[in-house]
Design brief:
Distance between the termini of chain B: 47 Å
Structural class of chain B: alpha+beta
Shape of chain B: elongated
Distance between the termini of chain A: 48 Å
Order of helices and strands of chain A: HHHHHHHHH
Largest interface: A-B, 80 and 85 residues
Radius of gyration of chain B: 33 Å
Helix content of chain B: 40-55%
Oligomer: heterodimer
Order of helices and strands of chain B: HHHHHHHEEEEEEEEE
Number of strands of chain A: 0
Number of helices of chain A: 9
Structural class of chain A: mainly alpha
Number of strands of chain B: 9
Strand content of chain A: under 5%
Shape of chain A: extended
Radius of gyration of chain A: 22 Å
Helix content of chain A: over 70%
Largest sheet of chain A: none
């Protein structure tokens, strides 16, 4: 769209009162409003990620700050999530228009070649990294209740048709739908992934 | 309710295979509906697992690497998925040890059948061994040749990518210069149109605040513009909630999102509000859908998109 570099009103900073006004648009209860804002944040993060933004968190911050700025300036917002969605679409447009974005794309295309033929060193590094991650996963899965840990093993073990049948059986045993089982396993997986990242950064510190 | 069609659609969304309209539909849904967001998260898990297990088709694998693996967060998720699969495989094998032990005992040396199998195998090894060695050495030399060929191919591809990157960079710089010039030419056209207004009165439309300010009461849907015959200039009034920029860039896009006109303008007083008034030559427009994108700038280099105005032009 525009060939020039976008800028996000850097002279404006999110102040405590501006954040409070934003939260007030979500819920009268501050804790509930905070929970809702985190939920919106997660969805916006996914939105930017799904639109190939390498640093989605940065663009989520820009979106929320811009929404807070507008509210602070006196815009009456009835439905904050949809208002932030609209702002997010504009922020995305600005991101796509930036020349830096175009250069990233080119660099991405170049680095794609590395995925095809990794060198021996890279393969060795990947192997070591996988081992480290596995160690962390063992530790993290140990924190789960035994039945849940076994469910993780059963859920991710099989492949193809056997996997589908296995998951149906698991859902039947738990008397829940297959869809609910998938969501439940996703939540467990999210917890494990978070724990693995913490464990890896802990290892790096040591 | 989860369906196979929905799963497929979400996977296509994640791989970047949906059309513009379908994408917006999916995004609007998961941004406003928590359950749908969960469905998307599950579809993402399953896509990652299929990639790690090597169950994606060649083309989907390429799309996954090009479109899906765009952030460090997603790279991390793929690595964790690899660990998760290995973890599940290892532990599932351990829990199935009693079954494995049964098989192993059947294959033990104490079994007469097993002894016969081993003796036959030993004979075949003596006879076929040298043949296998020759074959292996040939295969190894073929593999070596293939490897050096692949290295040369990779080198050629890297060189081509670098050349392409350089050309794209030059192209971007050229595009920026052209866009700046187009904006300034649009500004001059405005001056000419304003002077022409006395001889050829324009038709004027007030478009309100545009889509970003919808909560202020601006139009959410496309505004119909009935353009009478013989009109040379169409005047469009884009209202500003706050006038905080020295200049405003207005871009006119057609239904295919092609940038067909742009102008760098200043705001002016229009009734109770400040507004940006655009004078477009009517020959630029035919009956159809258009979009005006309004951005603000204080240095003619950095822009902030402020609002969008959807219009349906009907030429009589």
């Amino acid at each position: 769209m525009m060939g020039d570099q976008p800028v996000y009103k850097k002279d404006w900073v999110l102040t405590g009162p501006a954040l409070e006004k934003l939260l007030a648009c979500l819920d009268a209860d501050l804790n509930e409003a905070g929970r809702k804002l985190l939920d919106i944040r997660r969805r916006l993060q996914k939105f930017f990620e799904c639109n190939r933004c390498p640093d989605p968190d940065e663009l989520v911050d820009v979106t929320i700050e811009r929404g807070a700025r507008r509210i602070d300036e006196g815009v009456e917002v009835r439905e904050l999530p949809s208002y932030l969605t609209q702002i997010a679409r504009f922020v995305l447009k600005e991101h796509w228009a930036s020349p830096e974005k175009k250069m990233e794309e080119i660099e991405d295309e170049g680095s794609g070649l590395l995925l095809v033929s990794p060198t021996l060193d890279e393969t060795q590094n990947e192997k070591e990294e996988l081992e480290e991650r596995l160690e962390c996963l063992e530790k993290c899965s140990g924190k789960l209740p035994l039945a849940e840990r076994q469910r993780v093993i059963d859920y991710y073990y099989e492949q193809g048709r056997a996997k589908i049948d296995k998951r149906k059986r698991m859902a039947d045993e738990l008397t829940i739908t297959l869809g609910n089982l998938r969501v439940r396993m996703h939540r467990t997986r999210e917890r494990l992934e978070e724990c693995i990242l913490d464990c890896l950064s802990e290892k790096k510190r040591i | 309710m989860r369906t196979v069609e929905l799963d497929k659609k979400l996977t296509r969304y994640l791989l970047g295979k949906l059309t513009g309209e379908e994408r917006i539909e999916v995004e609007d849904r998961y941004l406003s509906d928590g359950k749908f967001f969960d469905e998307l998260a599950v579809a993402e898990d399953e896509l990652i697992d299929d990639y790690v297990r090597g169950e994606l088709s060649h083309s989907n694998r390429e799309l996954f690497e090009r479109n899906f693996l765009c952030s460090t967060g997603r790279h991390e998720r793929v690595k964790s998925a690899r660990a998760l699969m290995k973890f599940a495989d290892t532990h599932a094998a351990t829990t199935r040890v009693s079954w494995w032990q049964r098989v192993r005992s059947a294959l033990s040396l104490e079994s007469p059948a097993m002894r016969l199998v081993l003796a036959t195998g030993f004979m075949m090894l003596i006879i076929g061994g040298p043949l296998v060695v020759i074959q292996m050495s040939k295969l190894s030399s073929d593999l070596q040749g293939l490897k050096s060929e692949q290295l040369a191919q990779n080198q050629r591809e890297t060189e081509l990518e670098q050349l392409l990157a350089q050309q794209k960079r030059q192209n971007d710089e050229l595009n920026q210069a052209i866009n700046r010039e187009r904006g300034e030419r649009g500004q001059l056209e405005q001056e000419v149109a304003r002077l022409r207004e006395q001889q050829a009165p324009p038709v004027t439309f007030a478009l309100g605040f545009g889509e970003i300010e919808r909560s202020k009461g601006g139009p959410a849907q496309a505004t119909k513009l009935n353009v009478p015959q013989g009109i040379e200039i169409i005047k469009l009034q884009l209202e500003l909630l706050k006038d905080e920029y020295e200049n405003y860039m207005v871009i006119l896009e057609d239904a295919q999102q092609r940038d067909i006109w742009r102008g760098l303008l200043q705001s002016t007083k229009a009734g109770k509000h400040r507004a940006v008034v655009v004078r477009l030559p009517s020959r630029l427009l035919s009956t159809g859908q258009y979009k005006l994108i309004l951005s603000g700038t204080n240095n003619k280099r950095d822009y902030e998109v402020l609002s969008e105005f959807n219009v349906d032009v009907i030429k009589k």
